[in-house]
Structures are given as C-alpha cells and as structure tokens.
C-alpha cells in the first residue's frame, strides 16, 4: 500500500489540533487531536511512499514506533485514505490506458470521495468498463443519457430507436445537427463512440436486442422521445424485463415536466404495473385516459425544453451510474418530477401493489436485493495520534 490522503477533499485546520478534510457536509471529516509531528507525517501521505519508507520517515521526525500503522488504520476507518496502486487487476489495466484515465480523472476523484475504501474509487471506475447498458430512446433525453454513460466509462452502451433524426432531436450533449436525416440508431452509435474515453473489447455475439432484455445487461434506461411512455409507462412493455430480473429506470420529459424514476429492481421494488394500479385506485378514470393518450392519433412536436431535457438526462444518468456502482439511488422505488417554470424537484414513493404480478409487494426495500448501500456519517471526528478525542 502507498497511502495517500484523498486529494479531492479540501484540507483546512479548524484550530491548532484539528484538521477538517472536505468542505461539504455530505463528505467532510474532522481529524484530531493532531500534534505538530503527526501533522508533518500527514504531509508525507501523498502516494509516493510505501509503508516501510513512511515508518522510516516517522522515526526520523521522532514519532514512536507503530505511529504510521496507527495513523493508516485511523485514516482508513475515516474514509480519508486512497491507494494509487490499489483497486485490483481491472484497475491496473485501466491505469495502463493513460489517455482514457486522463479523461476520467475528475470521475475518479469523485468516486474516491464516495468510496471510503483505499483504491475503491478506481475499482468502481474500472468495473464500469465491463458493464452493458441499453438506452431505449434517442431523442433529447435518451441520446444525452447514452453519451453521458459512455463518457463515464460504461463499457457498452446500446441505443435502440427507430426512424430518422429530426431537427428537434438535436441537443447539446446529444445528437448533433449533422445527424439530422440520419437513422437515429446509427447517429446514436456514433455519439456513444465519440463520447467514450476508449473502446473496451467488444464481446462476441452481443448485438442489441430489439424485443426483451438482452443477456448480460446491467441496466435498461427507458428514455423515450414521447415522454408519456416515461411518465405513464406501459407495464406490458416492461414485462420481459420484470420476468428476467433486469433492472430498469425511466427518464423523460412530457408537457414541460421532467421525470426521473422509478428505478425498478424486479421482485424488490415497485414496477410500472404497480404504478398504474396505484394510480387507477386513486383515479378510476385513469385507464380511459391512458388508452386515449397512448392511441397515437395525434402527432406533435414534444414540449421538451432543451434545458429541462438536459437536466433530466443528467439526473437519470447519475442515478443509473449510482446503481451500477453498487448503490441504491433516491429513485429506487420512487419518482422525481420537476416542471417548468419553477423547476422544484419533488419525489413520490411508488409502493409495490398487491395485485401486481411483479412480486415486489411486501418486500423490505433493499434488504433482500444483494446491493451494497454505502453510508457515511457527516462530520466524524477521528483521533490519529493515539489519544481518543
């Protein structure tokens, strides 16, 4: 191990014997008491020295035997240490791709803040390269989601959509103006390719599936050009995903309202069927409305403001990445909405329904899913020089 105090966290002395790492409450940690010699030792935790050399440096400045190991243990428990050589074989392979890693350094810095384990940030980043995500929709939301996921090191991003790119499909971060008139899928593939930091090896026989969930999918992002299919998703369209246990998340814009979620973990959290059954109980006229809305009789340019579409795409991609990294984001079994012009995000819990065939009703959310949820305490104080605070 080559200990390194996480450089992504801003460092400042609160007073003479307490150091605060991190500026924001979500990730800030206070360390103390810290004497002058230990403060000097902290400066040597920059990732360039292994433990034997650090122990030698500690002796040279008069620190007692065992101080380095005690400091490493305490800083590790506080989530403040990284290991620039850690993360395992996949991380080592990523380090060898210097160009890709340079593009991903801001992402790596962010993941190092989120993951308390030394080397955990690059381990998560490297794991993304083996994942496969399918994005259903190549409009202003879907194409931007696909580009963000590809730029975030997700190894395989497939985009499914039909028809040709229209002028109103174009968006910053999404399909470019040059794509107008091209097949949407072909244009989206080019967009994903340009956004990728590098090109991981393509798995044999892993072409995009037109119908149900394809083998090996880590997640499906449903981001249709017609935002109604995200706002009021058709349970029949998701039946194969539920039956095969394929996680999926909805995101879209309809009538100047953006929606993100729910993230559906089949058998564990509420699905589109649960959503529709619950809404019908509260509004018996809803099935008649849905039948008319979905009839497709009227065609119009969607009310999908480019700023709202971009915000929804970014939030959808962020929730997708959080899930891929092993967390349960706030859209798990819930939906977030924001409407123009005020853009106040509000959340609604989607409850599993007893009459839905998905099997989620009665389950304790997250407890049985086998998904690790990372939690950190804010403002923790950790002793580093042998004396407890």
CATH topology (fold) name of the largest domain: Rossmann fold
Strand content: 5-15%
What strand order characterises the main sheet? 7-6-8-9-10-11-12
Distance N to C terminus = 27 Å
Helix content: 25-40%
Q: What is the structural class?
A: alpha/beta
Task: Spell out the key features of this protein.
13 strands; 389 residues; Rossmann fold; alpha/beta
Question: What is shown here, in short?
Answer:
The protein has 389 residues and is α/β, with parallel strands linked by helices. The protein has helices at 36-43, 51-60, 67-77, 89-95, 98-114, 120-128, 142-151, 184-195, 228-231, 239-243, 272-282, 286-293, 306-324; strands at residues 4-5, 11-15, 18-21, 29-31, 81-82, 132-136, 156-160, 219-222, 248-254, 257-264, 334-339, 346-349, 380-382. The protein is built from 13 helices and 13 strands.
Describe the 3D structure.
This protein has 389 residues and is α/β, with parallel strands linked by helices. It folds into two domains: 4-79 and 376-382, no CATH class; 128-349, Rossmann fold. 34% of the residues lie in helices and 15% in strands. It has 13 helices and 13 strands. The protein has helices at 36-43, 51-60, 67-77, 89-95, 98-114, 120-128, 142-151, 184-195, 228-231, 239-243, 272-282, 286-293, 306-324; strands at 4-5, 11-15, 18-21, 29-31, 81-82, 132-136, 156-160, 219-222, 248-254, 257-264, 334-339, 346-349, 380-382. Strands 7-6-8-9-10-11-12 form a seven-stranded mixed β-sheet. It has a four-stranded mixed β-sheet with strand order 2-3-4-13, with no helix packed on it. Strands 1-5 form a two-stranded antiparallel ribbon. Helix 7 (142-151) packs parallel to helix 8 and helix 7 packs across helix 13 (306-324). It is elongated, with a radius of gyration of 24 Å.
């Amino acid at each position: 191990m080559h200990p390194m105090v996480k450089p992504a966290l801003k460092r400042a002395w609160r007073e003479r014997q307490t150091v605060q790492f991190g500026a924001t409450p979500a990730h800030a940690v206070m360390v103390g008491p810290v004497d002058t010699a230990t403060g000097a030792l902290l400066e040597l935790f920059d990732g360039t020295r292994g433990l034997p050399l650090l122990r030698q440096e500690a002796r040279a400045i008069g620190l007692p035997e065992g101080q380095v190991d005690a400091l490493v243990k305490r800083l590790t428990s506080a989530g403040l240490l990284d290991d620039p050589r850690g993360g395992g074989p996949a991380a080592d392979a990523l380090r060898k791709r210097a160009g890709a890693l340079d593009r991903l350094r801001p992402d790596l810095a962010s993941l190092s803040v989120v993951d308390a384990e030394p080397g955990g940030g690059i381990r998560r980043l490297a794991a993304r390269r083996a994942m496969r995500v399918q994005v259903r929709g190549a409009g202003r939301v879907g194409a931007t989601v696909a580009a963000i996921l590809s730029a975030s090191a997700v190894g395989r991003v497939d985009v499914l959509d039909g028809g040709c790119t229209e002028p109103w499909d174009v968006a910053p971060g999404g399909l470019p103006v040059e794509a107008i008139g091209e097949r949407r899928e072909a244009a989206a593939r080019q967009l994903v390719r340009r956004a990728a930091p590098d090109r991981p090896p393509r798995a044999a026989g892993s072409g995009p599936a037109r119908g149900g969930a394809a083998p090996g999918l880590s997640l499906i992002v449903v981001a249709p050009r017609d935002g109604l299919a995200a706002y009021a998703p058709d349970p029949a369209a998701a039946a194969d995903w539920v039956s095969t246990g394929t996680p999926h998340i909805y995101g879209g814009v309809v009538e100047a309202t953006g929606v993100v979620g729910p993230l559906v973990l089949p058998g564990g959290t509420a699905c589109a069927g649960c959503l529709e059954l619950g809404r019908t109980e509260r509004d018996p006229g809803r099935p008649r409305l849905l039948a008319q809305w979905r009839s497709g009789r009227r065609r119009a340019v969607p009310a999908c403001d480019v700023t709202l579409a971009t915000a929804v795409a970014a939030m959808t991609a962020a929730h997708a990445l959080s899930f891929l990294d092993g967390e349960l984001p706030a859209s798990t079994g819930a939906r977030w909405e924001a409407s123009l012009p005020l853009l106040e995000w509000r959340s609604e819990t989607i409850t599993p329904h007893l009459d839905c065939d998905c099997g989620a009703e009665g389950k304790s959310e997250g407890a049985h899913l086998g998904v690790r949820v990372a939690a950190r305490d804010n403002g923790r104080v950790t002793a580093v020089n042998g004396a407890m605070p």
